[in-house]
Design brief:
heterodimer; A: about 450 residues; Rossmann fold; GMP Synthetase, Chain A, domain 3; 9-stranded mixed β-sheet; 4-stranded antiparallel β-sheet; 12 helices; about 30% helix; globular; B: about 140 residues; alpha+beta; VC0802-like; Alpha-Beta Plaits; 2 domains
């Protein structure tokens, strides 16, 4: 394993020094938040907290959380802590699960973001020798521009494709000698499928690294992508409310995602009680930004489920790691009283070679009971002519799902390519219960 | 003889899509059957050049597969099929599925059979003087 590190000073900083820097930066952020963010000042005042008495890292756990709802209420510019003349860029979340949140970046924020994405890309082994195809969306979504600036920062050649026009993406991948692809894992899968149809000979390409994020994906999905594409696949983590991609990244050890703690402080909390959980325990990831000027957030509840990995990483970085995000607290489905994460369903489905990694989970109410239908595509090469073999396959998948989830799911085998492909975040779960509940 | 099978979802239009593709490719169906369950179906058919067609179907991402089946001539009279099946039954060879077709120029009827032990069944039927087809006569 060859280790490549972008910022050898900060990424290898001894913990003691790192914590000193964190405390200083955190104090400064709190004072700015108190003066410039009315919504957060109100929270502090409501709880009677005097931030000038903030002394040690231990005090962090007493500070109020920032929720997505706080940022939504601040729409459009209420969460921006600087006069707009100091803001050079605005991004906004898609608003797919509610109204949009807006984040502003100062020139300094853009600079830090490029550095964070440079760490991310370098961590995967990418360098100035690489040609990087950025197939994250460019625009208000942070993915495209985030990856773009990082790739430029390390001196790589950037091909800003954005999303869509998949046939062209596959063509460029070959013609431009692309070695690194940045996109969502579901888009990478779709791209692999189109490439396969076009009978792309991967041995004639230089493609070697995939940097995938913006939606939770599983180890099984990673294995599948690495089998279909000539790459090592790396997970990255980020969210627009914090900065965009670059909050967490996998190094070559690929054993959790390093968080750049000189810019962010991660905590894991019990999502029900808000209490901080010890390292190693699974809960909701909470992040505090300590260098961000435009839109600082304090104890932001990400909604992502993870845990901290306190052990030092094989790569030598002192930056802590978070476990790969497999689910979001708001992804969790409660089906007949049982907690189910879509990622569990994905893992179970992908353990069958007869299935394609394209699926959709539909939840409805049937006679006042929750009903789960899973549509999944059969792999053309494993399709059997005999009805009884297909029925047996269906049955064994349903049994596997029942064993893993403790609930019965109705499986529906689908023709290849019949489930809609998306170039952005995929819409794999359709919960129709809420709508019906209103009538 | 080789048969092509295509997986179909049980929804309006899925059969049409396959047939439309066959029409575009100017493929004549010589014999066919459609098996269905509550949720999906399997369309099985015999064409003149199955190896060529299967590649084209796979390119179009249909879940299609080639299966070796037995096509036998059956006398066009009451009990014709019964006599054939009797031979297989006595040898304890079970039949997964079958479908019949006729060729206007021929007096015999034909049956496509998918059996457990293809080689054994072929040898047995040949021995009893049953016509086994390599391809469908014109």
């Amino acid at each position: 394993m060859e280790i490549t590190i972008w910022d050898e000073y900060y990424e290898l900083l001894p913990r003691k020094e790192l914590e000193k820097i964190q405390l200083n930066r955190l104090k400064r952020t709190l004072i700015r938040a108190y003066h410039n963010l009315p919504y957060y000042r109100h929270k502090l005042e409501a709880e009677g907290i005097d931030i000038h008495r903030f002394k040690t890292m231990q005090d962090l756990k007493h500070l109020p959380f920032t929720c997505k709802e706080d940022l939504r209420r601040a729409y459009p510019f209420g969460a921006i802590a600087e006069p707009l003349r100091n803001i050079v860029r605005i991004h906004s979340s898609s608003g797919s699960t509610g109204s949009a949140t807006v984040v502003g970046y100062t020139a300094g924020d853009i600079e830090i973001w490029a550095e964070l994405m440079a760490r991310t890309l370098t961590g995967s082994g990418a360098s100035e020798e690489d040609i990087v195809q950025v197939a994250f969306g460019y625009g208000l979504f942070t993915g495209g521009l985030g990856a773009h600036y990082g790739a430029e920062r390390i001196g790589a050649t950037v091909v800003p494709m954005s999303t869509g026009n998949t046939a062209r993406q596959v063509q460029i991948l070959q013609d431009f000698n692309i070695s690194v692809l940045c996109c969502t894992p579901s888009y990478a899968l779709y791209l692999a499928e189109v490439a396969q149809e076009q009978k792309v000979d991967w041995s004639k390409t230089r493609f070697r690294i995939g940097i995938f994020g913006a939606e939770p994906w599983s180890e099984e999905m990673r294995a599948d992508l690495e089998q279909k594409l000539p790459i090592q696949a790396f997970d990255i983590y980020g969210l627009s409310e914090i900065i965009g991609p670059g909050v967490g990244f996998e190094c070559q050890a690929r054993a959790g995602l390093h968080v750049s703690e000189d810019h962010f402080i991660p905590e894991i909390i019990n999502p029900d009680t808000g209490e901080v959980l010890p390292p190693g325990e699974t809960g909701e990831l909470v992040i505090t930004t300590i260098t961000k000027e435009g839109t600082p957030v304090i104890r932001y509840r990400t909604g992502d489920v993870s845990s901290l990995i306190p052990e030092p990483c094989a790569c030598g970085r002192t930056l802590t790691r978070i476990k790969r995000i497999k689910a979001r607290t708001d992804d969790m489905l409660i089906i007949r009283g049982v907690n189910v994460y879509p990622s569990q369903i994905e893992s179970a489905l992908l353990s069958f070679k007869e299935l394609e990694p394209h699926y959709q989970i539909v939840i409805t109410k049937e006679n006042f009971m929750d009903r789960v239908d899973i549509k999944v595509e059969v792999a053309p090469e494993f399709f059997s002519d005999e009805v009884k073999t297909l029925e047996k396959l269906k049955q064994s998948i349903e049994e596997k799902l029942r064993a893993e989830l403790n609930i019965h799911c109705h499986l529906r085998l689908m023709e290849p390519k019949s489930i809609e492909r998306t170039s952005g975040k995929s819409n794999r779960v359709v919960d129709l219960r809420k709508k019906e509940g209103l009538t | 003889m080789k048969q092509i099978s295509v997986f179909l979802e049980n929804r309006p239009g899925s059969l049409f899509l396959v047939l439309k593709k066959l029409k575009e490719l100017k493929v004549n169906l010589r014999a066919m059957s459609l098996a269905d369950t509550a949720e999906f179906g399997v369309l099985r058919f015999i064409v003149d050049q199955p190896e060529v067609l299967i590649e084209k179907l796979k390119q179009e991402k249909f879940a299609a597969t080639l299966t070796e089946v037995l096509a036998v001539g059956v006398e066009d009279r009451p009990g014709g099929l019964c006599d054939v099946i009797e031979i297989l039954t006595q040898a304890e060879i079970s039949v997964e599925y079958l479908y019949a077709f006729v060729v206007p120029s021929k007096e015999e009827a034909y049956v496509v059979l998918r059996v457990e032990n293809l080689e054994k069944a072929t040898a047995l039927l040949k021995e009893k003087g049953i016509t086994i087809l390599d391809k469908i006569p014109v």
